[in-house]
Structure formats: C-alpha cells, structure tokens
Amino acid sequence: xxxxxxxxxxxxxxxxxxxxxxxxxxxxxxxxxxxxxxxxxxxxxxxxxxxxxxxxxxxxxxxxxxxxxxxxxxxxxxxxxxxxxxxxxxxxxxxxxxxxxxxxxxxxxxxxxxxxxxxxxxxxxxxxxxxxxxxxxxxxxxxxxxxxxxxxxxxxxxxxxxxxxxxxxxxxxxxxxxxxxxxxxxxxxxxxxxxxxxxxxxxxxxxxxxxxxxxxxxxxxxxxxxxxxxxxxxxxxxxxxxxxxxxxxxxxxxxxxxxxxxxxxxxxxxxxxxxxxxxxxxxxxxxxxxxxxxxxxxxxxxxxxxxxxxxxxxxxxxxxxxxxxxxxxxxxxxxxxxxxxxxxxxxxxxxxxxxxxxxxxxxxxx
Length: 366
Known about the structure:
single chain; alpha/beta; eight-stranded mixed β-sheet; about 50% helix; globular
C-alpha cells in the first residue's frame, strides 16, 4: 500500500512539475512574442495611446511600415464588438499599403472600465466621435485626408462619415455592408421562405417573421435564432481565419494578460459589460440607433466607395443581395464590388484576399 502511495505521489508530482513548466514556457513565449510584435518597423510607426475624443478617452493603435503611406482608420462592428484583441494581426496585413489605425469605439474594449459608458451612445455621438478621431489622426499624422474601412456596423458608420464629411476622406471601404435593417430583414424572410420550401415547420416560422420589428420581442427573437441556426452561414473566427488567431490573441503586444484571458473567455467581465451596454444577450435595443443611420436612400458619394462582401452573408441585418442592390445604385467618383467566399465575417478572416483587394484600392488612390 505504501509503495503504491509513493508511486502515485511521484506521478502526481511529475504531472504538477510538467504543468508548471508548461505554464512557464507559455508565459515566457508570450513575453518574447509580445516584444517582437511590439517593435516599430524601420521607417514605420507603432504607437498605442488614449485620445481625448468628444468628452471621453478612446484607445487606438497606429501601425505602419512606412510613415509616408496613406492612413486607414478601421471601424469595428457591433455596436460594441471591439475586436482589437484579435484584429491587430489582421490589420497588419494591410500595413504595406497603409498606416493602419485600430480603434476601440467609445466605452468598449480597452476603454473599459476606466472610460465606460452608462448607456448606449446615440448615433450623433458616434458620428461626432468619428469626426473628432478623423481630425486627430489628420493632424497627428500630417495627412490632409484618410481612408475609412468598416466592418458590419462599422460599414454603415463609415459610410455615414464619408457622406457627411467627404472633404476629410480619400475613400470609404465597406465590409459586410449594412444598409437598412427592415429592408434586410424583409430580404432575409424571403430568402428563408425559399430555403424552407420543403420544411413545413421552418417555412411556417419564416412566414411569421415581421420585418418591421427593429427591436424584436421574445417570439421574433426565437424565430430569428431558429432560422439563423438552420440556414445562416456563421463564421467561426478561429476555424475560418487564414491567420492563427490563437497566436494573435496570446502574442498581442497591446493587451495585458488579464485582457487576453478575458478575450479567451476565461473571464466574463468585459463581455458582460459590452452585452449589458447594448441591451443584454439579445442586444437589439441598439438597433433603433443603428437604423437611424440607414443609407438606403443615400447613394451619392463624393469619395470613391468600395464594398467587400461574403458570398454567403445571409442574416436578418446583413444580406449580400441587399449590399449588391445598394452598390448598383451608388454614384461615386469610383466604385468596385469585391467578393470573398464565406459568411458575414469572411471579409476580415480571409486576410490574403482582403489585403489583395485593399492593395488594389490603394493603387487606385495614388
């Protein structure tokens, strides 16, 4: 018995030593990776700071391989889905052509908890933030104009900035374009009806979908969830990206260990805050604000306008067919529509194609 206990004790001690060694190796590797990724390229720029914007402070990282390159401001989705934990590695694939600015919008991401918001900001507040951030970057980086690139909610946000202040921008790039929420939901309903033609249960659910409801009730939310689960192509960031996002998260030079563990889902502190701010798990309380920025009837741009969409982007707030129809109506000095295979997040996840498209756009601006 004593001999067995000694053997068991040695095994447990060996496991403990192995575990501690593995943790030490991971932490040392993290420090080395962060140091490498935190370097400033020769002739380039790598700055991280909080900027005074519209009565609060907002976090940005500025990264580029050549200070003379034009500036690209990335506007993340949501509202509230700050993805700077991961997207720094995605955005760096664009840094040969642009000095790229990764921005956590008001109250979110690195701005929490020190600069948290007590309620959802208004559309006017978001637009003022965008204007002030634009002017800050123009002065700080010595550029007359900058280029906008936005994903999902960020696409309609960027489009509104370009529409309102064209004198400040070289171009606008809209990824996974949002246009108008009721129109999108109506198109999603028709698409779901077609997809469910041979499924009576789901077909009946699609018939009950009410496109006019921007803030959905429990029944409508259940319908949307079931239809999304059955038919919508949803992206798995870590599975579908051509970047190693686990490595991007662990070696992020701009995140503390707590922030990295949070983003990995080991702590709900930041996630719970973001969901609470935009209305809980359903988060549709933010949709009236988003709808107020609808671009359905605003198609005249004074700057070049480019759209990048996923071929399988079918959802109640984003439909690839809606983006295509809107693009056809756009009147701009230059425009082009690009496709990336996949769903709503594919334009971000497939960085090789994204960087090729962005390079094409940058060449047009020279």
